[in-house]
Specification:
345 residues, alpha+beta, ten-stranded antiparallel beta sheet, four-stranded antiparallel beta sheet, 2 helices, 26% strand
């Protein structure tokens, strides 16, 4: 009888469910498993986001680099050497680059390599912002009767200069006067309103210089917009890529034309050797190479990333500290095919 009672008692206990201790242990173990699972999911999600952002910036920088390399390689195509390239060299901000555009140039039988709009003889170039009267017969750069840009939106292309696009100005007859560059504000069949942003032409001296021939050519203007905390690379004012934090350019000249870049021929690689487009020593007819670096950063910070330091290249003044951004950089060197070889194709 006693054995039967014990058996009934055990069955009663089993049918009564878990004890409090057993329940607490189960809940604790389940909580640990859920925590570890959620932690793993969060980590995987974060890793996926970081990976996506890194891939995004890498794709951006590759695409941008390919475009800059292509246009820099073609700089000076069918235009005077002096008007082939220009730039702004900054040590505490991103650099800017102007490269002569090729889209509106269809050379056909042109072989002189001197295409460009000519300043009217009645108005001198004065190194200032303003409206300049042009020789209207040269505003059609390739002289094919077809213009490239519709600046007033009426459906008819009326100019080979784009409003908001870049320009480069030089004296084709006296290239050692330097070069200037900026942005086109307005254009019609015989006038250009210009915003000169960098460089200038040295004073014309009639007793020692050839009769001046001022040439203005359309240019692709690369710059970085940092307004409002954004980091965008612009081409002629249009958004090219987001997340581009810095753009640095250096210039290499062969002044004595011996095939060697001698000490002192480099510009933009140190603060003491800043590139100056107005220089009468380093001119585009001896420009042999352009080197650039593009720094791209992720859209968001990663609090677990401790290597988020600003990447300093060329003559950029060093910026120290960790801001938790992940960055990627691509550097390239381009030898312009048409600089120093007037008329080459």
């Amino acid at each position: 009888m006693r054995g039967r009672n014990d058996e009934r008692h055990v069955r009663a206990r089993r049918s009564g469910g878990f004890t409090l201790v057993e329940l607490m242990l189960t809940v604790t173990m389940l909580s640990i498993v859920m925590y570890l699972t959620m932690e793993s999911v969060n980590r995987q999600q974060k890793t996926s986001i970081v990976t996506d952002q890194v891939v995004e910036v890498q794709n951006n920088v590759r695409a941008v680099a390919a475009l800059i390399e292509r246009e820099a390689r073609m700089a000076g195509f069918m235009v005077p050497d002096a008007a082939g390239a220009c730039g702004a060299d900054n040590t505490t901000a991103p650099d800017e680059l102007w490269i002569s555009e090729i889209e509106m140039i269809v050379p056909d039988d042109e072989r002189a390599g001197d295409l460009g709009a000519r300043l009217a003889s009645s108005q001198p170039w004065n190194n200032a912002d303003g409206t300049y009267n042009m020789d209207s017969t040269t505003m059609d750069l390739d002289e094919d009767g077809v213009f490239f840009y519709d600046n007033d939106g009426n459906g008819t292309n009326e100019a080979d200069f784009r409003v908001g696009g870049g320009f480069i100005v030089a004296d084709m007859a006296n290239p050692a006067r330097g070069v200037g560059c900026g942005v086109v504000l307005s254009v019609n069949a015989s006038q250009l309103q210009l915003d000169l942003q960098q460089g200038q032409l040295a004073t014309f001296v009639s007793s020692s210089m050839a009769p001046q021939e001022i040439v203005i050519v359309p240019a692709a203007h690369y710059s970085i917009n940092t307004t409002g905390g954004t980091t965008e690379l612009l081409r002629n004012g249009d958004l090219l890529a987001k997340g581009v934090e810095d753009f640095q350019v250096s210039w290499f000249f062969d002044v004595d034309d011996d095939g060697v870049i001698d000490p002192g021929d480099e510009r933009g690689i140190t603060a003491a050797t800043q590139y100056d487009p107005a220089s009468i020593i380093h001119t585009n007819d001896v420009l042999k190479e352009i080197r650039y670096s593009i720094v791209v950063r992720t859209r968001a910070t990663d609090v677990d990333f401790s290597g988020g330091a600003f990447l300093n290249f060329e003559n950029r003044v060093a910026v120290v500290g960790n801001d938790n951004f992940r960055r990627r950089v691509i550097a390239g060197r381009v030898r312009p095919r048409n600089m120093g070889q007037t008329g080459s194709i």
